[in-house]
Write a structure and sequence with these properties.
By secondary structure, the protein is mainly alpha-helical. It is built from 12 helices and no strands. The chain has one domain.
């Protein structure tokens, strides 16, 4: 496959799966396994993560501006910090271990993710705004987010489902998840930038591929954010659970036959 198409496909997958509750890490791993894609390297990964970070910043620019002007902004930031702490700790501890996970790991993750999305995402919606939620809600959502270090378990799916069960309104559950994604993706960008700085010459040739993948990831990221908000507000979030079951089954069949 030509490098141009390969970069475009990877950018498309990254942009869609970064925000939809279907696990970006599992899709990229499966794509590389099934289609024989080689790992593109740090420069490429850094670029597409920057593209998705820019997409969520632009989409939620008014929400971010509103928080900055809110008298409760420090409490909102504290909730976000508490929600980020678990994944920061778990991600740091298991960073190397994740690189050595077996090929079937996404199957298990998709099954777990499909289960809670299908049966739990209805939640006990009480209409609580994220700015008014108890501080412990941030920590509990953060624990759910930490599950996403495992391939197949969706970060957005985990956080939105947890927020719904904690009584957040559908709109605020989705918005809080996306605000968390800004921090999570920014941390991932920082981590990759640090690694890239240690060996810049090794990845110089990958910037051309990144130049194709970045706009694709950016625009598909915007689309994915818009789609997920509509799905959550329409109370059909659980349908992504069935997709995860299908993805798990398809990938398992592939592994059994190869």
């Amino acid at each position: 496959m030509a490098d141009t198409w390969k970069a475009a496909i990877l950018g498309l997958v990254q942009g869609l799966t970064e925000f939809l509750p279907i696990s970006s890490s599992a899709h990229l791993l499966a794509l590389r396994k099934v289609m024989g894609f080689e790992v593109e390297g740090l420069a490429f990964d850094l670029s597409v993560h920057l593209a998705t970070l820019l997409a969520v910043l632009i989409y939620f620019r008014r929400e971010i501006r509103s928080i900055a002007q809110d008298d409760r902004r420090w409490m909102i930031l504290l909730r976000l910090a508490l929600a980020t702490l678990p994944i920061f700790i778990v991600g740091f501890v298991f960073k190397r271990a994740r690189e050595n996970l077996p090929d079937w790991a996404p199957v298990a993750g998709w099954l777990v993710s499909g289960t809670y999305l299908s049966f739990l995402s209805g939640g006990r919606v009480r209409g609580v705004a994220y700015a008014d939620a108890p501080l412990r809600s941030g920590l509990l959502i953060g624990i759910a987010q930490a599950l996403a270090v495992f391939p197949g378990i969706s970060r957005s799916g985990s956080t939105i489902t947890a927020a719904l069960w904690l009584g957040f309104s559908r709109d605020d559950a989705a918005k809080f998840s996306f605000l968390l994604s800004i921090i999570a993706v920014a941390l991932a960008v920082g981590d990759k930038a640090k690694d890239l700085a240690g060996s810049p010459g090794e990845h110089a040739g990958l910037w051309a591929s990144a130049g194709i993948a970045v706009p694709v990831a950016f625009f598909t990221g915007l689309f994915a954010i818009h789609l997920l908000l509509r799905v959550v507000r329409g109370n059909v979030f659980h349908r992504f659970g069935w997709y995860n079951y299908l993805a798990a089954g398809a990938f398992l069949l592939y592994l059994l036959n190869h």
